[in-house]
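G., the chain you wanted modeled:
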Amino acid sequence: MEKRLFGELLDIMKRLRGEGGCPWDRAQTIESIKPFLVEECYEAIEAIENGDPQKIQEELGDLLYQIIFLAQIGEEEKKFDIGDVLNAISQKMIRRHPHVFSDETAKDIPEVLAKWEKIKQEEQGNGKGKKDSSVLDGIPKGLPAMTYAHRVQAKAARTGFDWTRIEEVLEKLDEEILEFKEALGKGDIDRCGSEFGDIIFTLINISRFLGLDPEGQLRKATARFGKRFRLMEKMALQRGQSIDELDLAGMDSLWESAKVEIS
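Predicted structure as tokens:
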């Protein structure tokens, strides 16, 4: 059934792009599709975080459609087609899982990741003989800053360059906060910016040790703040006031009440 449905989607895409198809779809290029691809990724992530199976299904479909769209354009331009895309990812997964598809073994996840990284470096020609190669090569610089930092830290850690205990990272956080306070006390705004970045970078290290996604956790914290603030606004209106008419003490009181309602 899956093969039939996948074929139907390919046929729909070809019809939309073909003669007599949709003018909008026919006008798109690989470059013009990029913003939609990014948007659909974020909408899929939001659906996953909300835990709504039906919405996840819908957003994954939208994301798949963008991939089919790009593959169709690639085929029309005689550069690649969906078959090339499927074959490339299938072969990559087989190559990078020798502990599954060959006689090699891997005793745990760290060993699996180490093998993956070694194979990836070999594929990209980034072996030890290449002067300018780095284990950090291949991380998209266009990632959100927190995700990019997390990926950089994780890749560096696979070489053994990492803290051994989370307590060491917490001590580093205390050190970075102290340095930030010193810079702030001296009124050195440039250094404040640098030390602030170091604090965030260290917090991301803490999230990595705990197996948390810093980007996702920040989104959740922001959403939680938004829900609490909206509840504060409703509470203020119930008292016949708008939120901006309250003094700070009044706002703090409402905030504490909102925290009780929304944990």
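The chain is about 75% helix and 0% strand.

Shout if anything looks off.
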